[in-house]
Every structure is written in structure tokens, then in C-alpha cells.
Specification:
The chain has 325 residues and is α/β, with parallel strands linked by helices. The protein folds into 2 domains: 142 residues, Rossmann fold, CATH 3.40.50.620; 138 residues, 3-Layer(aba) Sandwich (Rossmann fold), CATH 3.40.50. The protein contains 11 helices and 10 strands. A 10-stranded mixed beta sheet has the order 3-2-1-4-5-10-9-6-7-8, with helices on both faces. Strand 9, helix 11 and strand 10 form a beta-alpha-beta unit. The chain is elongated and about 70 Å long.
Amino acid sequence: MRGAKGKSAEEQKCNSTEGLKNFCTIALLHFCTFRAKVLPMGRYRKILAAVDGSDSSKNAFRQACKIVHDDKSWITVLTTIPVYQDQFDVLSTREKIGKKLQEEGEKILAGIREIANEEDVYIRTKIEEGTPFQTIVDAADEGGYDLIVMGRHGMKRLEKTLVGSVTARVIGHSQSDVLVVPHDSAIGWKEILLPTDGSKYCRAAAEKAIDLAKSYGGQLRIVSIVDVTDEFQTEAPGAVEKLVKEAKGFVEGVKRNAEAEGVKAEALVKEGETYKIITDTARQYNSNVIVMGSHGRTGIKRLLMGSVAEKVIGYAPCPVLVVKP
């Protein structure tokens, strides 16, 4: 049977369906174009905040909320519950432990929802069972998140040195950038510190730092450190001069790239213990964030970051953004 225009009901339905598909495609393209205009280069679109109920992770979430407000981005909050119940043979015991752990997870997320209400931010929440670092990495990779936000726990000497196995492993294994926030600090982008050694990993961090500074109207301090022993300086002064010259080349190159993008930048070359110079420089300039590269690792070596990166994160007075190439 054909309608007034000579088309069967099936043909009309087909055309209607095709028209709806075309409309949805066009709408999606317009939306993506709108998002691209709203979100300048360098800003984060999808954020995963990993929380564990500690004051540190709560503060990290608050800072993530600031990024959400500034970047018009989406945020999901994830908490992980361990799989302890598998260690018990009695079914009733496993069920009780599983229920208790689930309740603890819900309690953590309830506290996060209160903070979200205070910050006027809409969030999605997830509870996952498993090894904390692996669930965070899997969630970030599967969900296509471009930033993971985590808290840095207290300032005990051991914690400063080791950062925390979960944080270290997330940074080592995840494809996403990772922002580590000390428990008493706030995020900002006006004063950005960028350590560089000229490697490809540092070049990726430099690109991100320039994009962020340009996007937020911030300025960039670029520092390269010549870290040699006193004995080496005494025995090979010529070699030290060569290292200083190379370091100047690294920072001046980044400075030129920043200024080409209209970003105010200062190039610094310093001598001393690398992590200490970086954290001291952050204090000197009241840096809002330190942007660092993440050295690629494979296999078992990925379980730990380099000692310099770990110590910078552990001792930094401000958040540290670890950028992936």
C-alpha cells in the first residue's frame, strides 16, 4: 500500500529512520564543534578522580571540581574495594565481608557527593572491586579519561620518598596524565614550573605546559638542572660546562616555543640535586603546579617511577602534573 506521495509505509519508515540518523550525526558534529570551541587546547575533557576516604583524596577531589568548573569537563569518581572475601572459605563469612566493604565504599562516595553539592558539580560515581592501582588504570583506559586526579597522603619521611605504591603504579601504567595533589594545596595554572632534560618525555610535558599557560593566561618557568657531584666538578670542569651549555639549550628552546604562542616564559639553569632544586624553585616562585614528563617503562620497571619523579611528587609544595607522551 502506498501513501499520497507514492511511497509505501515501509519506504516512509526507512526514510524516517535514515533522517533521524542524519539528524543525530549532524547534532553530534555540532556538539563536538561546540565543545572544541568551549574547551581551548590544553584543557581536560574527561576527569577520573580516585578517592579512598582520606582527607588527601577529598582535597584532591575538590581541586578536580575546580578544573571541572574552569574546563567545562565531565568527572567520574571512583573508589576501589579490595577482594578480601575470597580468602574465606565459609560462604556466610564471605558475604558479610563483601557487604561490609560495599558499605564502606558507599560511605566514601556519600562524603564525596556532599563535597560535589558544595562545589555545585555533577558527578558520576563508581565502586570497583580489585587491586586499587589496576582498577584505576583500567577505568581510565576503558573510559577514555585524559586526566586522573589523586591525592598525596601525609608528609612522613617514608611517604615523601616512596609517594605510595598505588600512585606510583597508576603513573607507571596509565596512558592518562596524572595530577597528584598534596593534602594541603590547591590547583592553579597562573604560575607553572616545567623541569626539562630535553628528552621526548619532557618535550610532551613542555607542549602541555605551554597549552595550559596559553589557555589560562599563565606564565611559565622552565628549569633544567645540572646534577653532578663535587668530585666530578673538580675532576672534569670542562664536562660540567658542557652540561650547563646543553641545559641552557633545552630551556631556551622551550622558551622560544612558549613565546611563539604568546606565553610569558623564563628560562632557568641551576646546579644541584635535581628533586631538591625543582621543589625549592617551586617554593621560590610560589608555583601553582609542576608539570613533568613521564619516562616510558615496560614490564616490571613500570611498577616504580624514577627516583627523581617520586621525590618531586613526595616533597612538592604544590600539585604535580605528570604528562604522558
